[in-house]
Amino acid sequence: MYTVPFGKDHLSFDLPAGMNGAVVASRNTKPLKDLKRAIFQALAEPVDSPRIHELANPRDRVCIVFTDITRASMDHMLVPAMLRELETAGVPDDRITLLCGVGLHRPSTPQEKRIKLGEEVVARYRVVDHDAQDPAGLVDLGKTESGIPLTINRLAYEADLLMATGIVEPHQFAGYSGGRKTVAVGAAGEAMIAYTHGPKMMDHPGTRLGKIEGNLFHEGVTEAARRAGLKFIFNVVQDEQKRPVAMFAGEPEATFHKLVSEARKLYEVPIHRQYDVAVAGVGYPKDANIYQACRAASYLFFAPLPVVKEGGVIIVPAPTPEGAGKGVGEERFFKKMRNAADMPSLLKELRASGYPPGAQRAFIMAKVLEKIDVIVVGSETPDIIRQVHMIPAADMEEAFRISAQKIGRGDLEVLIVPHALLTLPIVT
């Protein structure tokens, strides 16, 4: 019996007779036992930086950019601890803005803000959502040497002290997320998000999971955060159960690299061959919509070597109650996928004409679906699954039956990755 996350619960299944299964998971690392002590220690001994209360001045305007609801970051513990440091420094509450780095996702709801920050913080401080499509709320930071247009939220740029939270984990484009990305993408303008998620960036050989060196996306994020004036980050590395195994705070670049070193030990796991089929677990909140849930398939496909053989299948159990997703980016993804005749023609179109932010997921999934099939199990919106050129299946039994039909045989080798967004299988 195998088990993968499904919404806020789990889905258990057996393989059909004749199929062989193997499970791969991130390494077993002990989680931090005393989170309050770990938070205190991280802020008391920051990496290459003074403490927050030493960086802050009572007259400063302070902005903390925190992750939105699609990121399972423990902001409800990190942000209050940062705020206590600001209180020690004498910074008045009305000089502090908490900015939700939604990028081009939909705005966060009042309830989501309370989940992310806690009731007391939301009641006490100014909490706002970033708007990537509001020119008046953005600042132009120029371009990088490689031509990336850099823009940032005005509240973040004009702050005397700019800080951010985040999670460091494998990322489709940046190699590893977290660090500067919460500010540089979460609080960026549409033009920057469009370019960094555009076809040139997506086709670049350096844009791979787990890769930082030679990664233009990572270089753009680093430069954007530097020009925006990001001074301090507080990030965590989490295991498959979303339990923190490492946390560091301090100067953005040094802190990020220290966290990446810890993340590599946890997430990168060797496997000895490619498989016919992979089952890619997601779980809440990422499996609430197709836009986020299909990352599981693309993560396994865009590992340094694809985990599944060409012509194979990736199965993604996901309830997707929000359908394709409700944000601007999600709607653009859905429109491109729905209107596509097939994946090769969609790729040709997008490479020729480019695409707006959000539609990069259509480009990524077209590259995946050109080579393999993706089956989504248990979706509450099966018609939308079909419209985005994926295959809905009511349960795992049906998914394996479809897989055998697609591949043309029943003796399939199946890799089960319970937490596909937090496990990076490296084919050795």
Q: How does this structure look, described?
A:
This protein is of the alpha/beta class. It folds into 2 domains: 2-27 and 272-427, LarA, C-terminal domain (2-enoyl-CoA Hydratase, Chain A, domain 1); 35-267, 3-Layer(aba) Sandwich (Rossmann fold), CATH 3.40.50.11440. Helix content is 36%, strand content 25%. The protein contains 18 helices and 20 strands. The chain has helices spanning 35-44, 52-55, 75-88, 110-117, 119-124, 154-157, 181-184, 190-196, 199-203, 216-228, 252-267, 290-293, 295-301, 328-339, 343-353, 360-369, 382-387, 396-407; strands at residues 2-6, 9-13, 20-23, 62-67, 96-101, 126-129, 138-143, 149-153, 161-167, 170-171, 175-176, 230-238, 244-250, 268-271, 275-280, 308-317, 373-377, 391-393, 413-417, 424-427. A 6-stranded parallel β-sheet has the order 3-19-15-16-17-18. A 6-stranded mixed β-sheet has the order 6-5-4-9-12-13, with helices on both faces. It has a two-stranded antiparallel ribbon with strand order 1-2. Helix 1 crosses helix 3, helix 13 crosses helix 16 (360-369) and helix 15 runs antiparallel to helix 16 (360-369). The longest helix is centred in the middle third of the chain and has 16 residues, at 252-267. It is globular.
